[in-house]
Amino acid sequence: MVQRVDLIIVGAGMAGLSAAAEAADHGASVLVLEKEAECGGSSLLSGRYMAFAGTDLQEAAGFDDTSESLVADMLAVGEGKNEPALVGAYGRHQLETYRWLKAKGVQFHAVQAVSGHSIPRGHQITPAQAIETLKQSAIASGKVEVLTEAPVKRLKKNAEGRVTTVVYEQEGAVFEAEATHGILLTAGGFSRSQQLLSDVAPQLDGAIRIGGKGNVGDGIRMAVEQGAWTRDYAYLKGTYGFHPTADGPRKSQALAFYKGAIIVNKEAKRFVNESISYKLIGTEALRQEKGETYQIWDQDVMDAGVEGDALYDFRKLLDLGLIESAPSLEALAARMNLPADALKKTVSGYNAAVRNDNDVFGRRTLTHHFGKPVVLDRAPFYAMRTRVAMLATYAGVAVNEQAQVLNPFGETIEGLFAAGEMVGGFHGAGYMTGSSLGKAAIFGRIAVRTALKSAVVS
Predict the structure, then answer these.
(1) Where is the FAD-dependent oxidoreductase 2 FAD-binding domain (predicted)?
(2) Which residue in 286, 242, 191, 236 sits closest to 387, CA to CA?
């Protein structure tokens, strides 16, 4: 017997569970299908930030921010390649979504200056807490069923050409389920698919692979089979800031450069403006010999670390032995097997550029338009070997601002919606920290509202 519900959601990360909780608010019956044993996907591996503007946390910290400023920053970071309608929808719904998440019980701990923003608006969460909170909110309604280890294999259209049915597996058996109002794909990207990455982004072959283990692009494939167009493959970039051991069980990451550190290659030479997006930094880092680079900083930058923060808890990484410390630049160079004279020259030249505001790479801020660079002259000194990683792909299915999937002619594919990492067109040529989890929650909710306005005509 085919199960029939109002809405089927494929994938249980931030987008899928935000959608499920939103649907529960509307009293809709929902089936959530997650192929992994646990919910969360790549959302659990994120940098823990969501990008919002005009919040109570910002106000308490003395930051005056607006949706318009947030949208302007997104378009600037995306270099005009992102779809304005999608970014505009984010701006219109972001503050409401922040308040909705808080009302659901998602905990926001602090607001930080993060990549791509002209003002601190990285709202820190604990992803596991957010995922579990949204899941329990949805299930508590009695209208939402969440099945894990239930991979969806294909989608089917009805006789009228509307996507209505999913085919999925569980415990070795094959099942079908039908949605009267729509199927929402929130199945993540393809950072773990060597085939897809080699096909569309061979320039990333040197990046380590650390995305969610289920992120192999199956949601994108299913959408394409139904006629979906795709966006943004040309702008795929790795994420800079990970320790080389991040492809193991611990996804250790540090963005000391946004607190004032510099980045050098094996020759101890800088090669990039450290204030730009860590995606753009990643592109330049992969061009260095073997993709090996190093973050270098002093005690003042070390003191700017933030305890408990996934990106800025430098002390924790030092205690884990992932950051090296030395009383002088010469000693640090010896520890890192870098040429000492070159490192001293690089740091000396950088310090002079900071004092004279004439950096050869154009660095004028700590991150995007926020903060002032600092000289690196207070011992001890620190370094971390740093690599580029494929954590998330941020490219894929084309959608409109209502989260409806589009075909190559910009027409909607009836009954099919998408949100989260598997969607293309939103980020464009660059990436702004916090916008991935932000868009997941925002467009997951938008998709539900759109879907519940429509239904299969019997």
Answers:
(1) 6-437
(2) 242
Regarding whether 300 and 198 lie in a shared domain, the answer is no
Quote the pLDDT of residue 42: 87
Instruction: Tell me, yes or no, whether 59 and 205 share the same domain.
Output: yes
Q: Residue 310: its pLDDT value, please?
A: 82
Does 380 sit behind a cis peptide bond, omega within 30 degrees of 0 on the bond before it?
A: yes
Q: Quick one: average pLDDT of 368-377? A: 93
The angle that helices 14-25 and 435-451 make with each other, rounded to 10 degrees, is: 40
Evaluate whether 93 touches 445 at the Cβ level (below 8 Å).
yes
List pLDDT tens digits, range 107-139: 999 999 888 899 999 999 999 999 999 999 999
List all residues 6 or more positions away from 96 whose beta carbon is below 8 Å from its beta carbon.
none
Q: DSSP character for 399?
A: B
Q: Give the orientation angle of helix 127-140 with respect to helix 14-25, to 10 degrees.
A: 30
Domain that holds residue 92: 3-235+393-454
Look at residues 61, 53, 65, 2 and name the one whose alpha carbon lies nearest to residue 31.
2
DSSP state of 361: T
Q: pTM of the entire structure?
A: 0.87
CA distance 188 to 393: 9
| Geometric angle at alpha carbon 347, from 342 and 351, rounded to 5° | 150
Q: Please report the DSSP string for 152-209 in residue order.
A: EEEEEE-TTS-EEEEEEEETTEEEEEEEEEEEEE-----TT-HHHHHHH-GGGTTSEE
Answer whether residue 11 shows pLDDT above 80: yes
* 365 and 435 co-located in one domain: no
